[in-house]
Design a protein that fits this description.
The complex is a heterodimer of chains A (331) and B (333). In chain A, 32% of the residues lie in helices and 24% in strands. Chain A is built from eleven helices and twelve strands. Chain A has an eight-stranded mixed sheet with strand order 6-7-8-3-9-10-12-11, sandwiched between helices. Chain A has a four-stranded antiparallel sheet with strand order 2-1-4-5. Chain A is globular, with a radius of gyration of 21 Å. Chain B has 333 residues and is α/β, with parallel strands linked by helices. Chain B is 31% helix and 22% strand. Chain B contains eleven helices and twelve strands. Chain B has an eight-stranded mixed sheet, with helices on both faces. Chain B has a four-stranded antiparallel sheet with strand order 2-1-4-5. The longest helix of chain B has 18 residues. Classes of the chains: A alpha/beta (331), B alpha/beta (333). At the A-B interface, α5, α6, α7, α8 and α9 of A face α8, α9, α10 and α11 of B.
Amino acid sequence: MSGAASEAPLLEVRGLAMHFPISEGIVFSRQVGEVKAVDGVDFAIGRGETLGLVGESGCGKTTTGRCILRLERPTAGQILFDGQDVSRMERGELVGLRRRMQVIFQDPYSSLNPRMKVGDIIAEPIKVHGVEPDAGRRRARVHELLSVCGLSPKFADRYPHEMSGGQRQRVGIARALALDPEFIVCDEAVSALDVSIQAQVVNLLEDLRERFRLTYLFIAHDLSVVRHLCQRVAVMYLGRIVEMADCDELFDNPLHPYTQALLSAVPIPDPRVEASRQFRAAPGEVPSPINPPSGCVFHPRCPMAVEGCRQARPALRELRPGHWVACSEVH
Amino acid sequence: MPPLLEVKQLHTEFRTGAGLVRAVDGVTFSVEQGETVAVVGESGSGKSVTALSILRLVADPPGRITAGEVLFDGRDLLGLADEEMREIRGRDIGMVFQEPMTSLNPVLTIGRQITESLEQHLGTDRQAAERRALELLDLVGIADAPRRLRQYPHQLSGGMRQRVMIAVALACNPKLIIADEPTTALDVTIQAQILELMKSLSLRLNVALIVITHNLGVVARYASRVNVMYAGRIVEAGSADDIYHDPRHPYTIALLRSVPRLDRPRQARLDPVDGQPPDLTRLDGGCAFRPRCRFAVESCGQAIPPLAPAGEAGHSSACFRSAELGAARDVAA
């Protein structure tokens, strides 16, 4: 882990599981199965660190983020935030936690209330938590947050529909900063933006991290942005972490066959590099999390799979310093 | 031999509450038999409207094709009667759209969606059409084809639906397929499968491909020629190698510089394109990229720069300073 090894991590997730029940029938509703969205996930994030959580749709990365924020109540496992287990906290206890943990969502169109002015959107958390009862000072704070996020204070009186996607995302970031949080979950925070705007927002997130010593969980499917922004990366597949390592180590020496398939699938914006690349598509599709394959969940698509992979679920092992892999066939 | 498709000075406008929007404003490009051409741009650049205009699928109102020619196999598609155009669509030109769920009919079986087009366009009888549908599903890599033919779109995954869309597009042996963000809604490993499939089929069956996308990586992997669009116009056109290694338009240069690279460690902060995307209702008589351009000079505000030769043969740029920009070459390397 980067950062001082002696210091306790800000966030530690142990054995996190989130299983959603599937029920059938209306009058006599009964549970007929469950979706194992997150199925035994462990990781830690140091103070000031950015951990990238990557994977394809349905791998459980967003649900992991929602559990940490306690927007979901996890089925099992512990979530230690600053040493305190928040996984079983009740509503009332969570209020204090919410001030320290915030979220930036993907879609700047649906995550801002269209009937509220931008200033009121940003002021709302300050009001709800009773941080600044004085309306004048609250307004000053909103203006400060807008300018921190690169927007002119005059936007406070506008509505979200009057702004572009990039500007709206800046409003979402300003709102997340309103309570001076320590930790922010960025859930696909730049994915919906156009290429030319995406870089602006990535730089903003980086500046804010330094300026306010923020810790990020950066959930994304765009691996190039993750490589640019994160110090460490965890790759998820079907509810489990299959590989975790320092950023450059993971992208330069991927060990898990799924990570290798994922990286080779991403086209590089350079035709000369592309022409020289060996590319092999991973066969098949991601199986259903309702009835995941036995043993290693990747074995039906894995080019390295052997008989043993069907039976035992491989544990995440540290094969090189700081490089963890859940595959019994790599050594 | 003339090109398979020649789009000349195409103009498409939309009347909106905010004013007149020239979504496509004088677009000219061509596609040769069997080649893959990319149209790349960001939201609102006019790339999708260009595709819809070629197919004459722009909803009127609010949209209207106001000028230009679309020569396909020697015929001007814009001059055809609706009836004739309907025959060409789906027979000579196939289409693949972004959202396979909304472009397939939810109440028809997969088999019916393929056979319908065969019966409609080629007058194939039921049985022959069904045999051909089986063949097509095999061709696009769908296992267990006889069972799949009887299923409905909702029973298939996103990647599988996109394979069906490709099968439908290929059904009548078209000469051209227009694919509008064909893999944007798909996960990256599935995206790679679908693009490989389209590329190999296009080579094998000698079908030309227009790929419309915002993804610079996809363009680099699959296209031989590239058209970059900004605010309704093509601002740069050339071979993929020219565009990525000798870009001559400030927008292309800025775009390539702003994307982080997966294949190399972080070098420095990203270098974003400054400013906001253009408001198409407020364009003036100058270059639309001027407010965000680091190379802008006074003359950029006085006239819209035309697409003119720059660099190697076949490479053109719509910038008054394209010759000087040669010094900024190889931003991708």
